[in-house]
Write a structure and sequence with these properties.
Elements (H helix, E strand, L loop, with lengths): L2 E4 L4 H15 L4 H5 L5 E4 L1 H17 L8 E5 L6 E3 L4 E5 H6 L3 H16 L2 H32 L9 H39 L5 H9 L5 H5 L3 H5 L4 H12 L10 H18 L2 H7 L7 H13 L3 H14 L4 H13 L3 H14 L4 H13 L6 H14 L4 H13 L3 H15 L2 H14 L5 H11 L10
Parallel strand pairs: 3-5
Antiparallel strand pairs: 1-2, 2-3, 4-5
Helix pairs in contact: 3-5, 3-7, 5-7, 5-8, 6-7, 7-11, 8-11, 12-14, 13-14, 14-15, 15-16, 16-17, 16-18, 17-18, 18-19, 18-20, 19-20, 20-21, 21-22, 21-23, 22-23
This protein binds zinc ion.
């Protein structure tokens, strides 16, 4: 399952910080400028598992393994990766697509971990606060100059414009301040990243290869389209320093594990198939390409574009090659479910749940299939599975949406309203969440656990950046 869902609560902070930095040091990327809500994220068990496996050794080397740091995949095709809140590393799906080896994206993750370990976010906020003070002072000086100019009676002589120029000046000053600050942080993050890679027995070659691609004077940079470059100035000397450091590691020539490379390529194939235009998918993965990732991409593209029977045949072919790959069964179940065959989706999804050690996002899909059969015999099982899933995966609205339907089937409208309220809350729709939670409260006995949960939602304050109406 690959889901594109709108981020709910926390990322409003993220948008605020990145927007502030982008505004100060570079033209704001149009996507950010237009978005008031958090950017949409991609949820997929297979991709998230690969990213967890990529980050685990780095976080351990950085002493951050207990911080429960998550990698969040953003639904953006440009290359970007950043940290914004000390708890999450954000990676565009475009960064995964453009990383040909695990080692390349692992290098980027190591660099971002360097920012986390160095506490750079706190320092950046401080720096921004300082920049604002500087701006205020400069603006006051500019206003003073303007007043002086006007008082001299030379309003048309050009002197009056000194004020305007002085006001424009601070923007440039902030830009320079942030860039010089940032260069230092970037070099520190590079060094820390290489240290974490070496400590975990990995090469920093991929990090060097990726950053070299972004060198300021490269063709790639001249295009100026990738947000990573805007947040990561990449002067040649920085990349040269990185190369020297990376080459000094005993692991410089260490190759990626072939099994990991295959998982990497499978995730890229899946992202391409779900996110890119059909003709792009077939250009990347033409019929002449018989590799497993190419067959995976084509099977997904086939089901997405309506030919369920052909897709199922292709998926069965994949299962023959890797009979214990949970994601092939997940795909089979998802294709059947979305093709209106909920009952047939149950068996492959059960298998996917079992093979993935109860991955909650896959459990939610199984719950959806059980609820979707209209067979009330499945309802209690669906509720049990979905409750377990939402307990372990607290940010995906799908589990609550399906729980609401299951409770509705049983005529338990108090629980159904509460689950619908929780789903709306996770989608960031506070108005609907409050309405449903208020109704749920009238259906529960006062003080019962359901009433308390509903009351929490009614009382929840909208977070900054979230619509409060
Ligand atoms: Zn950086």
């Amino acid at each position: 399952m690959l889901l594109r869902i709108a981020l709910s609560k926390k990322p409003s902070k993220l948008t605020a910080i990145t927007a502030a930095v982008a505004l100060a040091i570079a033209p704001m990327p149009p996507a950010l400028a237009q978005q008031n809500k958090g950017p949409p994220i991609i949820r997929d068990t297979e991709a998230e598992q690969v990213l967890r496996d990529y980050t685990r050794p780095i976080l351990r080397a950085a002493g951050l393994e207990k911080q429960n740091i998550q990698v969040v995949i953003l639904n953006e095709s440009g290359f970007n990766a950043f940290v914004a809140d000390g708890r999450r590393i954000f990676v565009n799906h475009g960064a995964l697509m453009q990383s040909e080896t695990p080692n390349q994206i692992i290098g980027v993750l190591a660099h971002e971990t360097g920012h986390l370990a160095g506490g750079h976010l706190a320092k950046l906020r401080e720096q921004l606060a300082q920049a604002q003070t500087q701006m205020i002072i400069a603006m006051l000086l500019g206003a003073g100059a303007m007043v002086a100019g006007t008082r001299g009676g030379n309003t048309n002589s050009g002197l009056a414009n000194v004020g305007a120029a002085a006001v424009a000046g601070p923007q440039e000053m902030i830009r320079r301040t942030l860039i010089s600050y940032q260069r230092q942080q970037e070099e520190n993050a590079d060094r820390a990243g290489v240290k974490f890679l070496t400590a975990s027995g990995q090469s920093a070659k991929g990090m060097y290869e990726t950053f070299k691609r972004f060198t300021n004077d490269s063709l790639f940079a001249a295009r100026g389209t990738d947000p990573y470059l805007q947040s990561h100035p990449m002067p040649a000397q920085r990349v040269a320093a990185l190369e020297e450091l990376a080459r000094s590691s005993p692991y410089w020539d260490k190759k990626d594990d072939p099994a990991l490379q295959l998982r990497h390529d499978m995730v890229r194939a899946k992202i391409s198939a779900f996110m890119e235009r059909q003709d792009t998918v077939y250009r990347r993965y033409p019929l002449s390409n018989d590799s497993l990732p190419a067959r995976y991409a084509r099977a997904i593209a086939t089901y997405l574009h309506g030919d369920l029977r052909s897709a199922l045949g292709q998926i069965d072919g994949l299962i023959q090659v890797q009979p214990n790959n949970p994601y092939f069964y997940e795909l089979r179940g998802q294709a059947l479910l979305e093709g209106g065959k909920a009952a047939e989706a149950i068996a492959p999804l059960r298998k996917a749940v079992q093979l993935s050690n109860n991955a909650p996002l896959i459990e939610m899909l199984l719950g959806q299939a059980l609820v979707g059969t209209d067979n009330t015999a499945h309802t209690d099982e669906a509720i049990a599975i979905l409750r377990a899933a939402v307990g372990r995966e607290t940010e995906a609205p799908l589990g609550y949406t399906q729980l609401a339907m299951a409770y509705g089937r049983k005529g338990d409208f108090a629980q159904a309203d509460l689950a619908s309220a929780q789903a709306a809350f996770l989608r960031g729709d506070n108005k609907t969440a409050r309405e449903l939670a208020s109704r749920a409260k009238t259906r529960f006995a006062i003080g019962t656990p359901g009433w308390v949960k509903a009351d929490d939602i009614v009382a929840a304050k909208p977070l900054p950046g979230q619509s409060s109406n």
